[in-house]
Design the sequence.
């Protein structure tokens, strides 16, 4: 399949942060980012995902519907990097396509560097969209504490997206899938109206992960996403992330991620793996825990 290229700028990072609410300082605060292991601001993982969605629309066809997405972020994307987005069909079964997706940094004479890689499952235009049941989120064995984080901790946020948010997503990402933009086109695909773009739904996780739990400075390593049903602008959507595993030695945190409507209908779920090496409050958390564990002192 063909590919396309794009250069992301700091202004794009800032627009995506405003659109999603994800103001993680590794994306938007140069002073913070320069002190992190990244050394400069980096693109949101879901912004790279939006580049993949644009490629799906253009290469599979307008009206393509996504049911699953797995992503890894092996290297950061900096402002000014030239990116190439490639798709390759890996399997096809009756209009259901498994597609390998890769975003790489490219330059004259340079070896391409992968920055987002994964696999997506999509429904080709004209094919009925199947029901995808939500998946369970089992807890895993791990450490009891890391920088004040503990298994079972959770954070939630509720937001209602409007038509203007979908328009801004299209302008910023270049993804012109008509099911995000036109009620008639969306109804022709079996929906009740234009639906929420998948990177905006997953961006609700990004907001929580990067600003609330684990917190500012969190880096996204992997994300598994499933879309049991569509979400619509005008609906109150609640995103929740919950810690399922801590790996203190590697500074890694696993979390269950989910977005649901007000009546409890799950529209996006999955699992995240994040790195907390740059966590803004980790030094303070370590000091509090150290003092709390000193003989003669009781934790509050």
Sequence:
């Amino acid at each position: 399949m063909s590919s396309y290229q794009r250069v992301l700028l700091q202004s794009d990072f800032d627009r995506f942060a405003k659109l999603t609410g994800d103001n993680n300082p590794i994306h938007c605060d140069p002073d913070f980012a320069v002190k992190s292991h990244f050394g400069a601001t980096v693109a949101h993982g879901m912004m790279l995902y939006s580049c993949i969605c644009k490629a799906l629309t253009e290469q599979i066809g307008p009206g393509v519907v996504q049911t699953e997405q797995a992503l890894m972020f092996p290297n950061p994307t900096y402002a000014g990097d030239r990116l190439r987005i490639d798709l390759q069909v890996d399997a096809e079964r009756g209009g259901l396509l498994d597609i390998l997706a890769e975003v790489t940094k490219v330059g004259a004479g340079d070896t391409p560097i992968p920055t987002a890689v994964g696999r997506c499952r999509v429904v080709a235009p004209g094919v009925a969209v199947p029901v995808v049941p939500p998946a369970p989120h089992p807890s895993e064995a791990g450490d009891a504490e890391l920088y004040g984080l503990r298994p079972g901790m959770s954070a939630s946020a509720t937001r209602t997206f409007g038509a203007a948010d979908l328009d801004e997503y299209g302008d910023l990402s270049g993804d012109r899938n008509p099911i995000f933009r036109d009620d008639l086109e969306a109804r022709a695909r079996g929906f009740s109206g234009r639906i929420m773009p998948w990177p905006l739904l997953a961006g609700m996780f990004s907001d929580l992960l990067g600003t609330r739990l684990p917190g500012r400075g969190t880096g996204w390593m992997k994300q598994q996403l499933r879309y049991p049903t569509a979400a619509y602008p005008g609906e109150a959507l609640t995103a929740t992330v919950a810690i399922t595993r801590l790996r203190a030695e590697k500074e890694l945190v696993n979390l269950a991620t989910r977005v649901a409507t007000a009546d409890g209908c799950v529209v996006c779920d999955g699992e995240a793996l994040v790195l907390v090496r740059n966590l803004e409050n980790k030094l303070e958390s370590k000091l509090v825990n150290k003092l709390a564990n000193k003989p003669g002192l009781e934790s509050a």
